Amino acid sequence: MTSKVDEALSYEQARDELIEVVRRLEAGGTTLEESLALWERGEELAKVCRRWLEGARARLDAALAEEEGEDAERDGE
Predict the structure, then answer these.
(1) pTM for the complete prediction?
(2) The CATH number of the domain where 35 resides is what?
(3) pLDDT tens track for 29-45
(4) How many domains does the chain have?
(5) φ and ψ of 31, to 5 deg
(6) Which residues contact 41 (CB under 8 A, 6 or more apart)?
(7) What are the distances in angstroms from CA 36 to CA 5, 6, 8, 22?
């Protein structure tokens, strides 16, 4: 479950931290326990990023639908 702190992260903050987590995992040299903790953190950060992107998509879809509705009203006049 995502913490309140994670929910307060901006998309860019979550993305940048996720990039760092992936870099550390790819570099190796961590213990199994550290690797698991990094992987779990990465999963949480990915969820934060996904929520931001889904929200952005919903806003874009709503704006496009509104614009199409306005165009339809103008064409019907």
Answers:
(1) 0.78
(2) 1.10.287
(3) 999 999 999 999 999 99
(4) 1
(5) -70, 170
(6) 17, 21
(7) 20, 18, 24, 12
